[in-house]
Design brief:
outer membrane lipoprotein receptor (LolB), chain A, 11 strands, alpha+beta, 11-stranded antiparallel β-sheet, about 50% strand, single chain, 3 helices
Amino acid sequence: MLLLCLLAACGKGDSSVQAAMDFRNTLTAASQCTFTADVTADCGGRVYAFTLDCVYYPETNRSAVRVSAPETIAGIAAETDGESGTVTFDGISLELGAAEGNPSPMRLAQLLGEAWTRSYIDAQSREKDGYLVTYRTGYGDGELVNDTRFSSRMTPMYGEISVGGARVLTAELQNFKIS
């Protein structure tokens, strides 16, 4: 059934998700995308804000991020592949885990990229200055919902990731480039 829904969304014409599908096709044909993300992470009562420099590799569903602000944690880096990841700082590596069942903020680039290239496109709506696209990854209690706001030229501007109806990560996206 899911395959039929995905195939129906791939057709040319005025599909309700055509702009999202066109963006997906462009991104999956590329070797990488890069962007800067001003992230807010809600970790169950504690909220953290920081900036990440991000790279996502569509073919392998891998990402690399590096904290660039605030200065007190700048330089922390992570690499993820959707299943696992490592965090490095000053030559020390640690396994990347989830906090209280929520995705680690260091997985942001991989979570956004995976949604844009692989996840079910649930909805797309036209807004004054662009589009809002909702992606769904997984099922049940582990389902991630990614709402991404795109400019009218389908450049990602804002991403929001929710688990179980609770928003856990938000990101203002800048300097988005596909290469």
